[in-house]
Write a structure and sequence with these properties.
single chain, 525 residues, alpha/beta, TIM Barrel, eight-stranded parallel β-barrel, three-stranded antiparallel sheet, binds 3-methyl-2-oxobutanoic acid, binds zinc ion
Amino acid sequence: MVHDPNRVLIFDTTLRDGEQAPGCSMTQSEKLRVAKALAELGVDVIEAGFPIASRGDWESVNLIAKEVQGPIIAGLARCNREDIERAWEALKDSPRPRIHVFLATSAIHRQYKLNMAKDEILRTAVEGVKIARSLCDDVEFSPEDASRTELEFLAEVVEAVVEAGATTVNIPDTVGYTVPAEFYELFTYLKKNVRGIDKVVLSVHCHDDLGMAVANSLAAVSAGARQIECTINGIGERAGNCSLEEVAMALKTRESFFGVHTGINTTRLYPTCRLVSQITGMPIPRNKAIVGENAFAHESGIHQHGMLRHHSTYEIMRPEDVGLSRTNLVLGKHSGRHAFRQRVKELGFEVEEAELNRLFEEFKALADKKKELFDGDIEALVLRAASGAEGPWKLADLSVETSATGAAVTLRLQHSDGRVIEQRMSAAGPVDAVVKAIDAATGNSVQVRKFEVHSVSVGEDAQGEALLTVEHNGRSYRGSGVSTNIIEAAARAYLEVINRIEATRATAERNGERRNVDRSAASAI
Ligand code: KIV
Ligand code: ZN
């Protein structure tokens, strides 16, 4: 139970609901990195995964439970003993574990998905909460598809799970169907009609199918919700979840309207959003609220004039409040270690001295290739080093010849077992030739689904970031690469994909991995 009635808890589900977004899967070490960044950001709860979904998910939840201190660590489970016990096994090493059980309640889900009658739903939900409570003091229950559930039945289920011992009750708009006024009424109804509701934390969980996840979450807070479930950059199933950075800044900027506050250290928002974007390969749209490149840019003359007079004319938040420093200071090859260290710090990154020295060498090498280095270049440098994509292959050399009729590439790859493979390949275009050459050299063959290149800073010598998504054995993998040469960036991105595929294969072989829950079933939640 929250002591401060005006404190809204932030429950981050980037690693569970966010990771369910197509192409957003993360490796174990990437998840741990994100979890540590979330703890630094000041979230109250980290939903680390769905332990029954696979051995890999279980291991990630367990690793985070052991390694991340501060926030509550939650794991998702369906309302059955096997799921709940598996979740508990993964979570129990955390100083603050939470089991999050869920069961769909709407007529549509009862009929088509579960084939269960109302009384069976009620019994199963209560049983699930009781099993969870027998293991853990902190238990959250979610009636999936709550926003499309008959109000009276929803209230009945909520009352029953509160009675059974749930400590948080979360109301999901699973399919992003509701609208703010309606959702406000739903929460008001529950507050009024559910016995014992004031004993638990009432939570909200919104999806963004109609672009209203943040607005709906805020409406729920106005009606009394005191936990918001959200993800960094709003990533998640389909159109995504409520975006953490947007909802946190809405509550901070309009604190006098909402009368509540969160524990989020908003100056960590920008670096955390960039980190998750880098790790998931999901670029942040330029015009994205709070952390998009244009969020604090003023283009028109009238606006610039107003800003020069006083920033409050056209700015409702200060960039530094979200961790963005206003000066896009330019560094170059004459900039010293001190200036570099200072800029890395101002951009919100904490890097140990040995790592900083290594990055400084990379910075120097890059400064030899391009005259000026902007914030985007420095960020790309730090984030790439931090993402630490694992795998056996490294690009040792690449040369490209192009003409009006096609392209040929020659590349040299180094394997961690000592092999060096040289491969030449021709194709209609250089990226196609790179993909074919890497396939031939590594013995892989995958289907490229998406290929994008965008610049990480400005100017004709700007570095390009290549983002690639591929399909392999029914799973999607992504990779990113940054270079002043965009063909090299594409080669690095593709090699990252191959490394991820080989790492997945190696883990599966090691574990004899059997997915307990088919991924498509997991993504139906
Ligand atoms: O969207 C949803 O209903 C969920 C629940 C499992 C909370 O993600
Ligand atoms: Zn969800």
